[in-house]
């Protein structure tokens, strides 16, 4: 059967091939930007799925590729591990933290009592009641914007978690197509993609697995220390120490330092000195030792990269920025190194070509 001829086939297109190529790229970028704009409120779900994919992939390789277990069962098992071991505890801790901060913001009397006692002991006026209330309210709002909780919107929470789990399931079930697609469509050489993949693995290991382990140890040590020396609510302050431990340099001293001041204001000088001694001798040294050991095993990330990445990532992506922020900084540095290497190769090729032309010139003249 003959196909009907397209009546518009003979009409000449006004664009050159190069212009069509540029417009095609612009169209792809524009459509991709619109899609990203529409999904921006759920971007943390996709980022979280990618991070969990990298984190659990060694388990996937060991169980599916090496032991030949059923792919679907392993994928569902990893989803269950994610929900039970990560999502439920994390959101429970974050909800406890935000609820308690909101309570402090509404009723700052206990904090004001401590400040008045410190003022009487030191002879200096620290801050007024209104300023304390405003500071607590700002802190509560800031942490609420960083850490999503069930109380902040059950529907949004369920959508983000569900989308993250579905994306994670798809990444594992379609692992081969996903990895081939990255190789095919990313505008980088194979060695550059390998460097970016290694940087991603190092960041996930250092800022998820390693940092969570360090934060848990410091949280337990801080909570036990405060409980032993009679500080009220040691469980709550242990949870605060878990989140503060993600901050390089500062970390848990932001928790046990004020706790020592609280005990000093209460007249328990011995307890205050004990908290400071345990903090400086035990907690800080355990932190440094664990970071050195884990840096060699889980990815050596410079503390400055982590610090800049945390400030950048948390402000843009919320709690997922703990990993995404340092990853962005690491990717920037990797691409800068790739750019330097590509320019060096291009200059070497140009120099070799110039020498070749110069070497051929006398023969041509002869």
Automatic annotation (TrEMBL):
<keyword id="KW-1133">Transmembrane helix</keyword>
<keyword id="KW-0472">Membrane</keyword>
<dbReference type="InterPro" id="IPR002549">
    <property type="entry name" value="AI-2E-like"/>
</dbReference>
<feature type="transmembrane region" description="Helical">
    <location>
        <begin position="268"/>
        <end position="286"/>
    </location>
</feature>
<dbReference type="Pfam" id="PF01594">
    <property type="entry name" value="AI-2E_transport"/>
</dbReference>
<feature type="transmembrane region" description="Helical">
    <location>
        <begin position="154"/>
        <end position="173"/>
    </location>
</feature>
<feature type="transmembrane region" description="Helical">
    <location>
        <begin position="76"/>
        <end position="98"/>
    </location>
</feature>
<feature type="transmembrane region" description="Helical">
    <location>
        <begin position="46"/>
        <end position="64"/>
    </location>
</feature>
<feature type="transmembrane region" description="Helical">
    <location>
        <begin position="21"/>
        <end position="40"/>
    </location>
</feature>
<feature type="transmembrane region" description="Helical">
    <location>
        <begin position="235"/>
        <end position="256"/>
    </location>
</feature>
<feature type="transmembrane region" description="Helical">
    <location>
        <begin position="208"/>
        <end position="229"/>
    </location>
</feature>
<protein>
    <submittedName>
        <fullName>AI-2E family transporter</fullName>
    </submittedName>
</protein>
<keyword id="KW-0812">Transmembrane</keyword>
<comment type="similarity">
    <text>Belongs to the autoinducer-2 exporter (AI-2E) (TC 2.A.86) family.</text>
</comment>
<feature type="transmembrane region" description="Helical">
    <location>
        <begin position="306"/>
        <end position="334"/>
    </location>
</feature>
